[in-house]
UniProtKB/TrEMBL annotation:
Keywords of the record: Membrane, Transmembrane, Transmembrane helix
Gene3D superfamilies recorded: Jelly Rolls, Leucine-rich Repeat Variant
Domain (Cyclic nucleotide-binding) ranges: 924-1039
Organism: Spirosoma radiotolerans
Transmembrane regions listed in the UniProt entry: 31-55, 67-86, 98-126, 132-150, 185-203, 239-263, 275-297, 309-332, 338-357, 378-399, 405-422
Highest taxon in the source lineage: Bacteria
Protein name as catalogued: Crp/Fnr family transcriptional regulator
Length: 1055
């Protein structure tokens, strides 16, 4: 990505050509090599093609051509099978070289046949030789290109690189006009021989500059179980199956059109010289037009038509031509007019085929894994295209008919079948794209072959390995609980505690009679408290359980057994007096741990009658008890508790716990949340309302979230859109989200132009654009298949080039063009000028006269992060900056500390700006955008410690990390100093993610001033700003990786 590019720079002529052809600067050499390579292959194959047809047209073409087609098909199938064998046993780079050498040898063989053979058999052999050379060079060229280019590159560039053979074939066609004798044909073959040798040299250059191989990896997970035929013959891909059948049908039709073109020329011009000359001119015109169309139009047509319509254009063109021919039979008798019509059909069909269909058809292979991609291409070109050729030859030979007769109906029927096949091909292409960008692993209930898995997993229950047994239990629990029920008594006596635990959990989900003896044994004797509790719970919820049988469990001295039994009994009968009395006794116990257990049970069982008891515990001085009461309040239908929760939704100490509690409420909470939304403009309140609504899956909740998504505050919009991810799509809301999508696209264009014209804002605006991309994906998830959009979201950010390309290709086939172009320029590594040019072409010229800085100050924190606004303010003269800050304060109810006008004059505390700079200087946050760091600074607390004073001791519970603003800190283990830190260093960072005992003591060496980030505050922030979590995880991962590298590179001591 270019930063601060001068907008006035003008592209050079070569850059304009590259832009017109869709070639990026870094791709120019690669495209050039492939273009020249294909040009040389085209020269060689067309010259042999001319030689073969020149001889065939001399020898009774009505019968020799069909025979040649059939013989060629048989030979091509044989060679194709040989190629497929070596494709699995040789590296691709080695195979490609050997294929070209084979083409050179075949050219020599054809030359020998030309010299010594003058019969029909020799002519047929020469044609078969041409077809073999064509097949081998085609497999070699597209095999190499398939692994060098990804899906998006292939869509842009296959038309360009494949156009290399068009001028070659046009030149060869013109040379054909000069061919009048076998001696002339031999000269053409000598030129072809040289062309293939030159192509071999270019291939070596390509191999040296690219990694030409097809890596073998694990198969992708799929929810569609392929049939045995597809699994065995087509690599398990329905896409390859439909592509092969489509290609066979179209190859047959193409052969028939070519045959009728040649035969009609032969009938019109009886002199051999005239025949060759006429054919040459038509071929030259065809290839010339195809070359121009490929270079100048194919990419643009593909962009406008899309993949599906581009595929269907060829059969529809052929259908229209053949239907017209049927009509002309009854009205036109002129031989000349019919010849012109046949020439027109041939020319249009070949131009559409070569300029549009072939490049698009080859793109369809790209979402497949590389080995599967090569296998599919070889199968299509090496078996099914020859089958189509043989089918055409057989039909022509058997029917003895041309398209001038009723036989045209046969070919029209085949083309109708091709349309049907291509429609299904496109559907399978989208499925493959979805699999390519989707999750790499399936859930247990999404196994592609559950019937196959059943037999194996049943036997695993008897395994001596606990992991195997656990896997089997999980699968049977999800797919065949009846079978698992029979195994429960045995599994409950298993020696492994994890197996017993998993079995107890499965029993809890069954509506079957439970094995009382085994459960009672576990409840009273098992070493694991959680297992005793679960067993007592299962015993307590039995319908036929006797009171005398349960009383010992309810009053048991073991707290685990007691709470399990109470839960089971009250789940079955919430008003059971004995169990409820025991529960109340626990709740009023002086031990806070007992109170927490009681509150957890009240929450789990939704015991509304005990709401007053929960209200009492909300005033507890014990933090854990208070949070337990809050969680219980979220599960009870009580107006007083609801009011309490809503009043404390943004409380600094318990706000996060309140938010989690409200998530457990049902639709009855929505009116209160709506009233709160209408009564406030506080951003944090609105964000937490969105979070709560995201866990209540009702139409009323969705309607409230839709309203929040339409607010001008984009932070609130993002929270609402994130909450809507859990809701199914609602077609009635499409208009709303299309409006939001349009707004986001327009904002993207505004920010991109701003980043181009104001280099100082480039980095911070890039962050704003990255947040915009996430909002845009959330909007798309409301308009299209959610799982597909989620896969695309993950794919565009994936480090693997292939997966990024597949994600973009899926989006290109799914979403509106303007939205796709916006996403493409935002996630693609393109020059900034080029990004703006692409968007302006799609959205129209950008002509807003307001500067980007004025736009930022006008929109404020409703659109931009505090850091972006701060960067603009700090670029202004002090007086102007103060006026701008005051204007922001007057327009918006609250501002981030970073933007408060008095912040710059505060001397008692470290300013928010200095805190951001301090965090940015630490190695932990060095790769984190300042925009994200600015959201961390409000939760940082200042501490001062005198020299020699402890900051924390070894064994203390770690609840936060520290960043040193001034002074020095030593990390000690007893009297041993482990490390010493100074300004900008940090320590205790793992406590942000996990509460564990400190592994060492931290002591101030000098007077120190620290900034502390507590875990609870950080969790609050992560819940509202997911980018903070991603950033900290990325930073910690990088630090661990670097430490591992240092350890790996450390020299080992001599033994």
């Amino acid at each position: 990505m270019l930063v601060g590019v001068d907008a006035t720079d003008q592209p050079t002529s070569s850059q304009r050509w590259q832009r017109m052809l869709g070639i990026r600067p870094e791709e120019s050499r690669t495209v050039g090599l492939f273009f020249i390579h294909n040009f040389l292959l085209g020269i060689g194959t067309i010259l042999i093609y001319v030689a073969a047809n020149a001889i065939l047209l001399e020898n009774n073409p009505e019968t020799s051509l069909p025979v040649a087609y059939i013989a060629s098909a048989v030979a091509m199938i044989g060679v194709g099978r040989v190629y497929a064998y070596f494709e699995h046993h040789l590296a691709l780079r080695s195979l490609a070289v050997r294929v070209l050498l084979a083409a050179v040898v075949m050219t020599v063989v054809v030359g020998i046949l030309v010299v010594i053979g003058h019969s029909v058999a020799a002519a047929v052999a020469i044609m078969a030789g041409y077809r073999l050379i064509y097949l081998l060079t085609n497999l070699e060229f597209w095999g190499v290109s398939a692994v060098v280019f990804d899906t998006r590159q292939s869509k842009r560039l296959f038309g360009v690189i494949s156009s290399g053979d068009m001028p070659a074939k046009a030149i060869g066609a013109i040379l054909a006009a000069l061919v009048h004798a076998h001696a002339d044909v031999l000269r053409l073959l000598l030129v072809a021989f040289g062309a293939f040798l030159a192509a071999l040299y270019v291939l070596q250059l390509t191999i040296q500059s690219h990694d030409v191989h097809a890596p073998h990896g694990a198969d992708r997970s799929t929810r569609r179980e392929p049939s045995k035929l597809i699994g065995k013959r087509f690599g398990g891909s329905e896409l390859i199956f439909y592509m092969c059948l489509s290609l066979a049908v179209l190859a047959a039709v193409a052969t028939e059109i070519e045959y009728n073109f040649f035969i009609n020329v032969k009938h019109r011009f009886h002199d051999q010289t005239d025949v060759i000359r006429y054919v040459s001119y038509v071929l030259a015109l065809t290839y010339g037009v195809a070359m121009l169309a490929k270079l100048l139009l194919s990419r643009q047509v593909l962009d406008q038509f899309g993949v599906q319509r581009s595929l269907l254009t060829l059969p529809w063109v052929a259908l229209a031509g053949l239907a017209g021919l049927v009509v002309m039979r009854y009205f036109v008798a002129s031989e000349t007019v019919m010849l012109i019509y046949f020439c027109g059909i041939y020319l249009v069909f070949e131009v559409v085929r070569r300029a549009l269909f072939d490049p698009v058809f080859l793109v369809l292979f790209q979402p497949l894994l590389p080995p599967q991609r090569l296998k599919g291409h070889t199968l299509a070109k090496g078996l099914y295209e020859p089958l189509g050729l043989g089918l055409a030859g057989s039909l022509i030979f058997l029917l003895h008919t041309t398209l001038e007769s009723g036989g045209a109906l046969v070919w029209i029927a085949l083309l109708a079948g091709a349309v049907w096949l291509l429609r299904h091909t496109y559907k399978r292409y989208l499925h493959e794209l979805n699999d390519a960008i989707g999750r790499r692993f399936l859930e247990r209930d999404q196994l592609a072959m559950p019937t196959v898995a059943k037999t194996s997993l049943l036997s695993q229950l008897q395994s001596s390995r606990p992991d195997d047994v656990l896997t089997a239990i999980s699968w049977l629990d999800a797919h065949n609980s009846a079978e698992l029920t029979q195994q429960v008594p045995t599994l409950l006596e298993h020696a492994n505690a994890s197996v017993r635990r998993r079995t107890l959990n499965a029993v809890g989900r069954m509506n079957q009679k439970v094995p009382v003896r085994q459960l009672m044994h576990i409840a009273l004797t098992d070493d694991e408290p959680s297992l005793r509790q679960q067993a007592a719970y299962l015993l307590g919820r039995r319908i036929n359980a006797e009171t005398a049988e349960l009383a010992p469990l309810i009053h048991h001295t073991d707290l685990s057994i007691r709470q399990g039994a109470i839960k089971g009994v009250l789940e079955l009968n919430p008003h059971d007096a004995v169990a409820q009395a025991e529960l109340v006794q626990l709740a009023k116990d002086a031990n806070p741990a007992h109170q927490q257990i009681a509150l957890n049970l009240i929450a789990a069982l939704h015991l509304d009658d005990l709401a007053p008891l929960v209200s009492e515990r909300l005033t507890s001085s014990n933090t854990d008890v208070k949070k337990g009461a809050i969680a219980a309040a979220g599960q009870l239908a009580n107006a007083k508790l609801t009011t309490y929760l809503l009043q404390h939704l943004t409380d600094r100490a318990i706000g996060r716990a309140v938010t989690q509690a409200l998530k457990g409420r049902g639709s009855e909470t929505i009116p209160a949340l709506r009233a709160l939304q209408n009564a406030t403009k506080d951003r944090l309140t609105l964000e937490r309302i969105a979070t709560v609504c995201g866990a209540i899956y009702t139409p009323e909740s969705r309607h409230l979230l839709n309203g929040l998504a339409q607010l001008p505050d984009l932070v609130v919009r993002r929270a609402a859109l994130r909450a809507l991810r859990r809701f199914p799509n609602e077609p009635a809301d499409d208009a709303l989200f299309r409006t939001l999508m349009h707004e986001e696209v327009q904002l993207a264009q505004r920010l991109l132009h701003g980043s181009l014209t104001d280099a100082d804002l480039t980095d911070t605006l890039d962050y704003e654009l990255s947040v915009l991309v996430q909002r845009l994906f959330d909007i798309l998830a409301q308009l299209y298949d959610t799982e597909t959009i989620t896969g695309a979201r993950l794919g565009v950010g994936h480090p693997a080039r292939e997966r990024r390309a597949n994600a973009l290709e899926m989006l290109d086939n799914l979403i509106p063009r303007a939205t796709y172009q916006t996403l493409q320029v935002l996630v693609d590594d393109l020059p900034r000028q080029e990004k703006n040019r692409i968007l302006d072409v799609e959205l129209g010229p950008f002509d807003d006269t307001e500067t980007i800085r004025a736009f930022i100050l006008r929109k404020g924190e409703q659109v931009f992060s505090a850091w972006t606004i701060n960067v603009v303010l700090r670029s202004l003269p002090p007086a102007d900056a103060l006026m701008a800050q005051q204007a922001l304060e007057s327009r918006f109810a609250s501002l981030s500390p970073l933007l408060m006008a008095h912040a710059a004059h505060s001397t008692d505390q470290i300013s928010a700006y200095d805190r951001v700079l301090l965090l940015a200087q630490t190695s932990l946050f060095s790769q984190t955008p300042e925009n994200v760091l600015a959201s961390i600074t409000p939760i940082m607390k200042e501490e001062e410690h005198p020299a020699g004073g402890p900051i924390f001791h070894k064994g203390d519970l770690g609840t936060g990390m520290y960043v040193i603003y001034t002074g020095e800190v030593a990390i000690l283990d007893g009297d041993t100093e482990l490390a010493r830190f100074g300004r900008g260093d940090f320590f205790g960072e793992l406590a942000l993610l996990d509460t564990e005992s400190r592994s060492a003591t931290a002591e101030a060496i000098t007077d120190v001033r620290l900034l502390r980030i507590d875990q609870d505050d950080f969790y609050d922030l992560m819940e509202e700003r997911s980018e903070v979590l991603r950033s900290i995880v990325r930073s910690l991962s990088g630090r661990i990786r670097r430490q591992n590298e240092l350890l790996a590179n450390r020299p080992t001591s001599a033994q």
